[in-house]
Amino acid sequence: MTAPRPLIAGNWKMFGLGPAVDEARQVAAALTARPAAARVAICAPATLVERLARAVEGCDVIVGGQDIHTEACGAFTGDISAEMLADAGGRMVILGHSERRSAYGESDALTATKAEAALRAGLEPIICVGETLAEREAGRTLEVICRQVQGSLPPALAGTAFAVAYEPIWAIGTGLTPTLDQIEASHVALRAAMARTLGEAGRSAPILYGGSVKPSNAAEILKAKEVGGALVGGASLKAADFLAIVRAAG
Ligand code: PEP
């Protein structure tokens, strides 16, 4: 059986005005000139999704969003639905990112309902889990992330394309990364939790590592056991850095 292609997904967070579209264009052009071993996605702010989708049309770059509401439409000022994201050209969506969990109180149950909404609109969800520094120091990492997987992955994911992203909260945007042993221990535990939660489907979905991935550490992280790609924040904003991480996947 051939191994599935790794997934390298950029999370632009709340960064990027019009000129940022050019970074995506550069990524797309480079991948057209030399195709990547990995699948490549850019999860952009909602305001840029349609422009990015047009800019990379016909290229090997998937455009995604960073959040959705659970409903298809309604009186939810400021929100966008999965259907709206798909209509704008989005094909993927990040859900349950720690910044949404901490700043907006998003729970495992809400993340699971959002994952169902994503599937309803044909979006591929990337569901994030990760421990705080206090949880790691208390020796609770595996318990915390496995509980998050169990609560955030709805049964409807079985048989569909999705990914889980392991993002230790203390490693996001800090320049700190866990050791390779720590990454492997988390990913192996997550794989078992995914299989317990979803059966066979939980054995094949990629588990991305996220948290201060950069060109200088991507290759060794991507070789670690059960690491099926990366979710990249800061280093995804510049085409050259992002492409270096994409190329590190093979
Ligand atoms: C993220 O927020 O998903 C992330 C991984 O950020 P960074 O790469 O900047 O740590």
Walk me through the structure.
- This protein has one domain: Aldolase class I (TIM Barrel, Alpha-Beta Barrel).
- The chain has 250 residues and is an alpha/beta fold.
- The chain is built from 11 helices and 8 strands.
- α1 packs parallel to α2, α1 runs parallel beside α11 (239-248) and α5 packs across α7.
- α1 links the parallel β1 and β2 (39-43).
- It binds phosphoenolpyruvate (PEP).
- Phosphoenolpyruvate (PEP) is lined by residues 11, 167, 172-173, 210-213, 231-235.
Provide a quick synopsis of the model.
This protein is of the alpha/beta class and 250 residues long. It has a single domain (7-248), classed as Aldolase class I (TIM Barrel, Alpha-Beta Barrel). It has helices at 21-33, 46-55, 82-87, 98-104, 108-120, 133-137, 141-152, 180-198, 201-204, 215-223, 239-248; strands at residues 7-11, 39-43, 62-65, 92-95, 124-129, 163-166, 207-210, 229-232.
